[in-house]
Amino acid sequence: MSIDLSLIECSAADIVELLREQQVSPHDLLDTLAAQIERVEPRVNALPTLCFERAYAHADALLKKSVEERGLLCGLPVPIKDLTDVAGVRTTRGSLVYRDRVPDTSDAGVTHLEAHGAVVYAKSNTPEFGSGGHTYNSVFGITRNPWDLSRSAGGSSGGAAAALASGTAWVAQGSDLAGSLRTPSAFCGVVGMRPTSGRVSYAPAADPYGTLSVNGPMARNVTDTALLLDAMCGEVAGAPLSIAEPVTPFLAHARSPRAPARVAFSAGLGIATAEPEILAICRRTMDRLAVNGIGVDESDIDLSAATQAFHTLRGISYATNYEDVLAQHRDVLNPNVIWNIEFGLQLDNRAMRSAHRTRAELFYRMNALLQCYDVLICPASIVLPFPVEARDVREAAGKHFDTYIDWLAITYALTMTGMPVIAIPCGMSASGLPVGIQIVGRARGEAALLSAARAIEEIIGAWATGKPQAI
């Protein structure tokens, strides 16, 4: 056993270089992660299912190959969100319905990652079926925020974000519908990217033509996020919308930061109002960009039409995926999940037609704005991480929300546009909690977005004071 906790502080890109130079082995990394997990997991609960025996076996197989044949990640350990199947590993989807389920085959996205040198060692926690911005479920319980263990890690990729922040992962796979990559990134002070639909594929799926929910990368910085995106992207058999991998790797773009010339800033996209402290931190970030020569203009973009349309399209998705689950297992489902499915089942054709027309309008509105600006920036969350005892947010900045997901409007409005979005940390609250911004790029423009985000990350510089409570 070789444990070196100093490796925890390294970037994923640096770890991969150490793997290529054979200064560390995948076994060393797994040993180190196991030690860190034993130390912090009882308090955080980010990675409730571990599969180290499988991981060591995979590492053994990789080491039989030459370094050049070990793939882009070369043996880098990667946790997989518990919504996604990993062969031979308990995959519950955060639901009592699947609490004992062990799939025989992996999701095609996992197989794709492993073919690029990823070593899967854990499943990250998620709310039931990923339904919500707070990670808790009846199988594994609550995931806590490493910066303050009394606070939420966000959701639904809360386990992934908390693992990154507590040093039990260098990178992590997640997914995003209403902001599930971006909200936990904001809460935990990490980076999460929602790519263009089809950029990162998964299969099989009940609706392989769906474009609201996407898989994407999470990491502690923009460069590492680009590294994982390279390993996740590309054409996947069984995923009809999958996009071929780019000619130039996304990592190369992240390593060539290019500051945007003109940035549009929106306080709330016309659909949300952030708490004053969050907005003040975001505006200070814009001031810093301006001081560094970036043109920053206030935007009046209005995405308020997204609310009803998003609820409709999300409802259709839930009904498509879980109608049979509701019929057979209503008694063990979270009430929010039941509401989601039933809402989708009662929708009529008029509501569906209206939602599709509205989504088109939102895309064209955002597309027009981004012809004038390199990126759009807005807060990544309108609230700070809230107490873990709360199940959701029903009021913020003096506004009451009708449903348990409407506090996520600032993220789901961008989902509706289809543009790639990355969330990065930009500061801390007076109470020591992370605050993040979303950076929106042009359609299918992940390369330019990552370059711009890396430049903005450099301008922001050190944003945190101290370390997470859990470390």
Strand content: 15-25%
Low-pLDDT stretches are none
CATH topology title: Amidase signature (AS) enzymes
Instruction: Please give the domain count.
Output: 1
Q: Percentage of helical residues?
A: 25-40%
- The top-level CATH class is Alpha Beta
| CATH architecture annotation | Alpha-Beta Complex
Ends distance: 22 Å
CA radius of gyration: 20 Å
Shape: globular
| The named CATH superfamily | Amidase signature (AS) domain
- Average residue pLDDT: 98
Major sheet summary line: 8 strands, mixed
Annotation, overall tally of beta strands? 17
Task: Give the number of helices.
Answer: 14
Category by helix and strand content: alpha+beta
Describe the structure.
- With 471 residues, the chain is α+β, with helices and mostly antiparallel strands.
- The chain has one domain: Amidase signature (AS) domain (Amidase signature (AS) enzymes), CATH 3.90.1300.
- The chain has 14 helices and 17 strands.
- It has helices spanning 12-20, 26-44, 52-63, 108-115, 158-166, 182-188, 222-232, 250-254, 276-291, 306-329, 335-345, 349-369, 409-417, 446-460, and strands spanning 49-50, 77-81, 119-124, 136-137, 141-142, 144-145, 148-152, 171-176, 191-194, 214-219, 262-265, 295-298, 375-379, 395-396, 399-400, 421-428, 434-440.
- Strand 6 (144-145) and strand 7 (148-152) form a beta hairpin.
- The longest helix is centred in the last third of the chain and has 24 residues, at 306-329.
- The radius of gyration is 20 Å and the shape is globular.
- The model has no long low-confidence stretch (mean pLDDT 98).
